[in-house]
Design brief:
The structure is a single chain. Helix content is about 35%, strand content about 20%. It contains 19 helices and 28 strands.
Amino acid sequence: MSVTDGAAERLAAFRSALAEAGVDGMIVPRADEHQSEYLPASAERVAWLTSFTGSAGTAVVLAEKAAVFTDGRYSLQIETQVDGSLYERFNTADKAPSDWVGEELESGATFGVDPWLHTDRQLERIRKAVEKAGAKLKLLDENPLDVVWSDRPEPPAEPMVPHPAAYAGMSSEEKRGEIASKLADAKVDALLVTSAESIAWLLNVRGEDVQNTPLCLCFAILASDGSAELFVDPRKIGNSVRAHLGNAVTVRAREELGEALDALASAGKTVRIDPESAPAWPMERIRAAGGNLDTEADPVILAKAVKNEVELEGVRAAHFRDGLAYARFLCWFAARAHQGGLDEMTLVERLHGFRAEHEMFRGPSFDTISGAGPNGAIVHYRVTEESNRDLNPGEIYLVDSGAQYLDGTTDITRTLSTGVVGEEEQRCFTLVLKGMIGLSEAVFPEGTTGGQLDALARHHLWAAGLDYDHGTGHGVGAYLGVHEGPQRISKSGGGAELKPGMIISNEPGYYRAGAFGIRIENLVVVEEREIAGADRPMLGFETLTLAPIDRALIDLNLLDDGEIAWLDAYHGRVRDTLGPDLDPETAAWLIDATAPLAGREKELA
């Protein structure tokens, strides 16, 4: 979208709808009722209103003023897509939407909120900002933006499909029983599950309602006896999935959720709703009905994060399959990169093509980041026809991509050379590599969080006066979301304790604006470690990703013997695992790409 495509008319129509609804302003987040990472087209309200298409955006519209907020990933995009004469544009690091509301909303005004699009915690922050301004908050029964969005797409109605226990490792009955037992122990009668990913895991189902993640958008109530009610568009439920769900799962229309919550409240039942992940609407409904709310965390989130052995075997198989496709892509790239004639979009399509040849491939796990030269310095860059850039010899190329297979989800980043590169690029690449190796080799006691490990990935960059602004690691699902919690590795701290079976990314980087970007990413799984003489249980990481790291970008003078040994061992594993299943040309290339560094004479500094 451009800033001249009717944004002014849409803003004027929205303001009229706000007046009809009896409010003087409203906050419009990029969110749906499930707080999904990827939204169906029918929920892309911020994009429709403002023309901003980034994955993180919030609009606030008052009678005379309006603003759009995003984070640093989209600072350039917001400038080009959002009309500055209509909206003030802010980086959320500088000003939060709630702060702006508190400053700009007039005393005595009424401010509207759609309680389906904000969590209870988010709603509380908005409420405080509105009260600070001396105004009144109004929870709206109907979103005024939806009233004037005349060409709004229909909500998705793709069929729900069973996810076999051969991939899930546990039946839905077993999972429901496990979670129900935790509810009973906590004296909770029912759990409202609003996350589509949690429902997919709990009921062993998948869908196609959003891009990149195999989800069916729906709600569920799990009772403490293990039975469940599924609230879903009935068009999505065929005979096969009804048989899969069984008699203990009752299928009801989405619109009946409020009635079900009222019934629980009037019966005096205690209902758990996670205030961090659930929309505020059901919590307000329970409160209005005089029900008993339990606001602890959704127990499905942690259970989903800790993969069982069947899931882990599937994930390993997916990474093997992905490694074969990636090796073919790297071999193809190496034969052409130094010649020129490649561009970012062509590389996305070619990588996708190699993966798509396997029958278990179900699509990308996120939109591929394909950044040549200075575009690689844009951390969450998405190539478009307008931004598409040719690769020039001597530049470095960053490609961050992933795949969904029926048995696992992958996410890998490699930074690649297109010929002889400069010493500074080599230095920075090697510092990033040292951090990735340091985190890969980490051994740590039970109870450790990812925040406590983050410095291992940054240590060498910090010593050189460098850093990166994104997290070092995010959780990854098993044929589910490529970004999942509660585990993470971040210098901001937090995150859950790392437990055996959790999959997490290891992805330090460095970015020099206008010049180049570097990131190296493997997925790892937390595993138990036997340490002789240890006085407490210890953990470490098994690396899942199988792909060479570009040796042409390494400054050997900056690696110590232990780091060289780690890289040689990793490359040996990649070569031995993938080589027998590759075509002769790719297998020969892989032997060269993974040749040992150990024993090489180091260059003089």
